[in-house]
Amino acid sequence: MGNRFEGKVAVVTGGASGIGRRTAEALLEEGARVVIGDRDDEALAECARTWDPTRCATARVDVTAEDEVRALVEAAVERFGRLDIGVNAAGIGTLSPIRDHSLDSWRTVVDVCLTGVFLSIKHEVRQMVGQGDGGAVVNIASINARQPGEGMSAYCSAKAGVEMLTKVAALEVAQEGIRVNAISPGFVDTPMTAPTRQAVRDRFIDSIPLGRAGSPGDIARAVLFLAGDEASWVNGETLVVDGGEVYREYPRLLTGF
Length: 257
Hints:
Layout: E1 9-13, H1 18-29, E2 33-38, H2 41-50, E3 56-60, H3 66-80, E4 85-88, H4 103-131, E5 135-140, H5 153-173, E6 178-185, H6 198-206, H7 216-227, E7 238-241
Helix pairs in contact: 1-7, 3-4, 4-5
């Protein structure tokens, strides 16, 4: 265990599984106190059983509901006294050609992946501004913010929005000493990608120059860099962490490989 975030308090949305969970764990390992927000009650309960309750709390939150996001930030302040780091990792995706894509599915993806990040930034930075001593926000975007994927119109559009939202937020709060950055992961082995058929997974691996899928730990280490003092002059950036995947053709998920 290190101490690079000793005395810091973080919230992590989508923090009960995948990238969010490993990030929460990494922050705890480095001395932070963490509030994990997620809408998966079972996963939240497992997190609560796993980590020291004096340093880690959990809260059920739907990031598309502003009252719940506000309550998550308030829970961090009530439990641990402040908020220094916001990690916004909640996200979902769909696969459907635009001509068949339902409006309800579109709205769901955009609400979770983009509006959820907007609401999280809004309440995280509001608390940080009130404290008056800076902070750091890291949003989880995707290489699909830049690299289109067939059947992924809602997800690609929402993640592209996250990149621009990150830049706008970074401009707005920089004078308050708050940095806002993002990470764009490539194909990462998480519960969300676990159902991927082996043939599809093999095609993803073939598209990655480094020859392997990412791990949640690969992304968590990048989050810690952007949230920490080593990145004190990094603001409004999106760090692509993908093994070079963005430089090759994205798998053609609708029309074959």
